Predict the 3D structure of the following.
Amino acid sequence: MLTTETLVKELVEKNGRTRNSLMPVLQGIVREQNYLSDEAMICVAKELDLSAADVYGTASFYSFLDTIPRGKNIIRICKTITCHMQGKDDIVNALSNALKIKIGETTHDKKFTLLTTNCLGWCHKGPVMLVNDEVYPELTPQKALEIIEEYAKKTVI
């Protein structure tokens, strides 16, 4: 595994040293490390010649750029009114009970983090869940639990 400093240098080399490179660099860090540590944000600021506050402000604005450690599998449940009306709360309750965590928490084994998020763009197929980069539409509580069981089987920490 690369050090944070090496990872940042590689991402900056790949994406460039302009302000426009900030988002792809931050996304690359999250892809590799699952969140943006203070160390990573400071390295990015130095490499892109930006203030640390500017980097943190950008990172904390976007819900998919986590600034706290998350589990290996990040479960995001759409929290729009459409998904709410289609049973989002039943999905959240089923997952929360099965994983023994609340929204915003990570399981003790670091396999899962359960979050809600703004619209995932699948209102016509709600309720919707995103696990890492995979979209799961038209959920029922049972279907959501089966999906998470599959991730649990293949996740090694």
About this structure: Residues 91 and 144 are 7 Å apart (CA to CA). The longest helix spans residues 141-154.
